[in-house]
Amino acid sequence: MRIADGTVETILTGTVSCDPVRRTAWGTIIVGEEAGPTTSPATPGGWLLEIISPLQTTHVHFDRVTGLLSGPDAGNVATRPAVGRLAFEGIALYPNGSCTTVTKTVQIRARPAARTSSSFRAFRGPAARRSRISFSPRSSPAKSMDCVWASAAGTPPLPTATLKLSGYYRPEDADIDLKALAAGLVRWCANNTGNEGEDHNWGETICVTDGSFAEATANTATPEVQYLVIGSPDLAMPDNIAYQPGRGNWIIHEDGDGPAVGRNNDLWSCQDDGEDADTLSDGCVRIATLNDLNAEWTGGIFDATGTRFFVSVQHNVTGHGVILEITGWR
Prior knowledge:
By secondary structure, the protein is mainly β.
């Protein structure tokens, strides 16, 4: 979509349950399907694709069964199967392409009794858990990436201990701490949505550090995970997350149970941890509330200045989604 006048052009068709989308530093677009196995991890799930020349690409069709692309501009789109066939939920990309964090979750919306079906795995584990994948063969100065992900895998019969999974429930989205990156450090934060209505698992925001950028790229750092925001009845079921350049705040999008709990979804601006005794956010402020119980904030992202915020509203009463631009940030 051209923001200046709202003109929309279809670039790619044939995908299902498209969820994450990110522009890379080298000008391509990464998109993923949130289409996971419903009964077994052996059943192929969603695809990750790269649109190499987005401004020169139109009406490419993707056959997700065969993985083949067709149309005059089909050469401008490539599948990236090395990261696996999973349900991709959120993608956070580092600017030189050397390290990528991908959050994904299966579509088994498991309730507490079967919560092992949706969890974070090791964020940076042994080499066997990593994939060397090639992105942007035409334009990227970095021809390969180490793909580091928090993944949701497994089926209800497999216990968490066997899969070496943590207890996080329904991981959703992630974004990179740009202040840490400017200092040469790796830190990114992500949301676990939880389950508000049935068991008061209100979710949380966690942050992962992985040493310096050089150490993380060489896989010599030791990753650490800390809580940033603990969910509550007021800030429940965090879904998408966006880092605000300049201010360094985290914008957390709620995807709560709406009519089931009788409250609307909010946008929250949360400060990072400061000079106090704990490692938690130093405070969150509600900055926007939807007036439709069924509607959900999703996919928010700032421009480089941190003064223009673009966010989608879906499931609203009109039956149509809407993209908002929010300005006035100081």
